[in-house]
Amino acid sequence: TFNRLTALSRRDSEWFTHFPRKGEFFKNIDRILAEDRWEVQHQCIKFLQEAMATFGSNLEYCICYLMPNLVPKLGSSKITVRKISIQAIQTFLRLKPDALGSVLKTLSSFLLTSTDRATKGEVVKEFPAMFIPELAQWDWSTLLDALTKLMATSETELAEGAALAAKKLEGKLCLVD
Questions:
Q1: What angle, 0 to 180 degrees and rounded to 10, lies between the N-to-C axes of helices 2-11 and 38-51?
Q2: Fewer CB within 10 Å: N-end or C-end of the chain?
Q3: Which InterPro entries does the record cross-reference, listed alphabetically (predicted)?
Q4: How confident is the model at residue 1 (pLDDT cuts 50, 70, 90)?
Q5: Would you state the torsion angle of the CA atoms of residues 40, 43, 46, 51, taken in this order, to the nearest 10 degrees?
């Protein structure tokens, strides 16, 4: 089904405008992202990554709605899910850079409240992929605050990962100044 939707979005850039039940559609996508079936998750996120340019004025609302279940996929044990999640969030931020604050709030909330230490550690390792040049001038303080809290409150390995991510972010931001 996702392959057919992807093909439809490639053929018709207006498909989403005419789609009748957008809310129900995204609730179902959110349910898929919350499940454990990684093959379906991969296809779902791949569809989102390829089709999001066709979401028009609904893009930010739709993707931010999914973000609480998309961010943890950055730490998936399945590398294909992890990589397509990175690509999807990068694509979203390129299309909608002013949504960075919302993405960072979701990420920070996940990092500070999740009890899944393994996934949290992997998300910290993967999130520097979001430090794309298009966002160098934007405010990353929400993430820096969360990383600082992780460094102060986490066990050694996660604290070191948070410190490394903060250093990478600082390096990207210093290149702009």
A1: 10
A2: C
A3: ARM-like, ARM-type_fold
A4: confident
A5: -110
**pLDDT > 70? residue 119:** yes
Q: Which domain holds residue 10?
A: 2-174
Tally DSSP H helices, then E strands, for the chain: 10, 0
CATH code at 66?
1.25.10.10
pTM for this predicted structure: 0.91
Residue with tokens 């454990």: 36
- Could you report the per-residue pLDDT of 136-154, keeping only the tens digit for each? 889 999 999 999 999 998 8
Contacts of 56 (CB under 8 A, 6+ apart): 16, 17
The sign of the CA dihedral 88, 89, 93, 98 is positive
Say how many domains are in the chain: 1
User: Closest Cα partner for 127 from 81, 69, 73?
Assistant: 73
Give the orientation angle of helix 100-113 with respect to helix 79-95, to 10 degrees. Answer: 140
Q: Which helix or strand (DSSP H or E) is residue 145 part of?
A: helix 141-153
